[in-house]
Amino acid sequence: MKTIDELLAEGVSGKRVFVRADLNVPLADGQITDDGRIRAVLPTVEALTGAGAKVIVASHLGRPKGAPDPAFSLLPAAERLGELLGKPVAFAQDTVGPAAHAAVDGLEPGQVAVIENLRFNPGETSKDDAERAAFADELAALADVYVGDGFGAVHRKHASVYDLPARLPHYAGYLIATEVGVLQKLTEEVQRPYAVVLGGAKVSDKLGVIDNLLEKADRILIGGGMVFTFLKAKGYEVGASMLQEDQIPVVQEYLKRAEEKGVEFVLPVDVVVSGGFPDLKAKEPTHPDTVPADAIPAGQMGLDIGPATAELYAAKLADARTIFWNGPMGVFEHPDYAGGTRAVAQALLDSPAFTVVGGGDSAAAVRLLGFDENAYGHISTGGGASLEYLEGKTLPGLAALED
Ligand SMILES: Nc1ncnc2c1ncn2[C@@H]1O[C@H](COP(=O)(O)OP(=O)(O)O)[C@@H](O)[C@H]1O
Ligand SMILES: O=C(OP(=O)(O)O)[C@H](O)COP(=O)(O)O
C-alpha cells in the first residue's frame, strides 16, 4: 500500500486530491456532538494543503436513501473542518454536479472543498457493479489523485471506497495507516485472556462477526441492542426491545458452539427498561426500571444493561490482557441509560489489558462521558471496520489501496 508520504515525496502542488474521509459524526439537532472523526483526518488534510494540493474532502453521513436529505447534509461537518483547520472550506451542495465542479475549479493550491454527502447518490452504495462504476467515473472527473483515509468505511464495498481508487493513482492517508498498524498487531500477538465487548445498534452487521470471534476470543460480553436477540434465543421475553427475530437460530448456534469451544459468552443478568425510546433532545428524566434479564415486562423496552450486569462485566474484564470494545452498552446519549457504557469504559481503564475501543459512537461515548481518550490503548474511528479487520477479512477499501 503506498502511503501519503510517497505522494508528498512525488509532489502534489496544484494537483486535485480526493480525500475519502469518514466524517460520519453524531449530530443532535443539527449540532455535532463529537468531532473525533473530523479531527482524525486533519493530519492528512493539513499535509496535503501544506504541500500545495487542491483538496477535495468527501464522506458519507448517516444512512440517507440514495437521494438528498437535508437531515444528513455534510455542511455541519464541513464548517467544523474549516474551524479546526483555521481556514475557510468551500462547500458544494451536490456531490458530482455543477456545484461540486465549480467548487473544485475554484480551488487554489492549499485550499479545501467539501462535497455533499456521497450517499445522496444511489450509485455510492449500489450492489450493482455497473451503477457503482458509473458514479465512480463521475467522482473521478473531480480529481487527479485519490487518498483513502475513511477508516470507518473501509469495510463497505461502496463507489468512493472501492471503485474510485481503481480509477486514480491511490494512496493511504495517515489515519488508515495508523489504524491498520495498531489493529494488525492485535491480530498477530494477542495477549490472553482476550475479551471482546459488543453492543450498539447495528445488530445485523455485528452478529455476523461473532461467528469468527468464537475462534479468536476467550470471552464475549454482550450489551446494547444486541442483548435482546440473545435473551430471546434463550427463551426469555424481551418486551418492546430491539430484536432481530430472523437471527435467533444463528444466535442459538453461537451459544451452542461457544459452550463446545469453551468460549465464555457473558449476557446481562439485569436490564434497564422504559416504556419507550427516550427523547434525546430534551433529555428529561424518564423514570426507568431495572428488571431481571429473564423478566422484561411486555411493552417495556430494554435501553441499558443493569447495575448488576455492569458489575459482572467489570469483573469479567478485570483479568483480561486484551480487550476490544465496540458498541455502547445502552442508549448512552440519555443520562438515564448511560450507566452501562460508563461502567464498561471505566472497567477498560481499571484492567491491565491492552484496550482498543472501536466505533464512531463508542469513541464518542468515551469522550462525551468524560473519559480521557488517551488513557486507552487505541481508539479506532471504525467499529464495523475494526471488527471485520480483526476477523481477518479482506476489506474492500484497503484492498483497493493495494497496488
Ligand atoms: N438497547 C438499545 N436499544 C436501542 N439502541 C441502543 C441500545 N443500546 C445502544 N443503542 C444505540 O446504539 C448506538 C450505537 O451503535 P453503533 O452505531 O452500532 O455503535 P458504533 O458506532 O460504536 O459502532 C447508540 O446511538 C446507542 O444509543
Ligand atoms: O459509523 C460507521 O461505522 P461504525 O458505527 O461501525 O463505527 C461508519 O461511518 C460506517 O457507516 P455505515 O455503517 O453506515 O456504513
Automatic annotation (TrEMBL):
Protein's pathway: Carbohydrate degradation; glycolysis; pyruvate from D-glyceraldehyde 3-phosphate: step 2/5
Keywords, sorted A to Z: ATP-binding, Cytoplasm, Glycolysis, Kinase, Nucleotide-binding, Transferase
Signal peptide: none
InterPro entries membership: Phosphoglycerate_kinase, Phosphoglycerate_kinase_CS, Phosphoglycerate_kinase_N, Phosphoglycerate_kinase_sf
Reactions the enzyme catalyzes: (2R)-3-phosphoglycerate + ATP = (2R)-3-phospho-glyceroyl phosphate + ADP
Positions of (2R)-3-phosphoglycerate binding: R37, R119, R156
Main location: cytoplasm
Superkingdom per UniProt: Bacteria
Protein name: Phosphoglycerate kinase
Source organism phylogeny: Bacteria, Bacillati, Actinomycetota, Actinomycetes, Kitasatosporales
